[in-house]
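Our consortium's second objective concerns turning raw sequence data into structural hypotheses that experimental partners can test. To show how far this objective has progressed, the report includes one record in full. It was chosen at random from the queue rather than selected for favorable results. The single chain below, 283 residues long, was entered without modification.
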Amino acid sequence: MAIRVILGLIDGGPATETAAAAALAVADSFDAHLQLLHVRPDPESLVPMIGEGMSGVMLDQMVEGFRTESLERSAAARRLYETLSARRAGVPADGKATIAFREEEGREDEVAARLSRLHDLTVLARADRQSTAPSSVTLESVLLHSGRPLLVAPSEPVRSIGRKVVVAWNGKMQAARALGASLPFLARAETLTILTAVESHTPGRPGDVVRYLSWHGIRAEAVEAPAQSPGKVGQILLDHVAQAGADLLVMGAYGHSRLKEMILGGATREVLGHATLPVLMAH
């Protein structure tokens, strides 16, 4: 299935421009429509659990501080959209992405998951400690509750997305979903590597994926990298994409359930915490 409509989350924080640029680059590549989304939180919902010792005056000051920052981030997100729109005003409409802006109030994780269900791809920036929005919670919510793939943009701008692609394959369901979601990217890639970090329990081999992709007219190289010790899969992936000069990593999102919510597994956390390239994920 082609990528025709993309949701780009922008929280108005330090990573807003990087996330928007990555989303727009993908939209341009596929001549898709990009919906930039800013979720403005309800300030009262951001007040943390507090003890009885906090006075009403202190609580009001805290809420007002959250409200001020929320409005500043909302304004920053809208200014970015207006800047991007102005830059594209003179660009011919044919063969280029269209772009729109949408703002909603509520919990970012809930709104993003709901709206992602009617988009072919969601793009958001890697969580940063300076962000008011609960980006890591949003990431897990979109992965677990949208049923759609997610592209996580790195903290620094990238020159290209999808020219040199590495697909992490272990034969599991999540990897299969990520592979299927990435087919539009794989069909355009100049170089494509299917990488398996082989552990004792790894059920799949990269050669099987190469044969599968050949039926789609996609050429790929199979690579196996033995995992010398448990828990090193994430580092193997990061090392390989660095050596290959890749500009896109495709992988399944793994984790375990805690009260019916996904807690990201070790390899997923390792990659998201240190990747300097976009990561396309599915759960």
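The partners drew two points from this record. The domain at 5-153 is CATH 3.40.50.620 (Rossmann fold). Helices lie at 16-30, 56-87, 108-116, 135-145, 173-186, 206-214, 233-244, 266-274. Both points have been shared with the crystallography group to help prioritize constructs.
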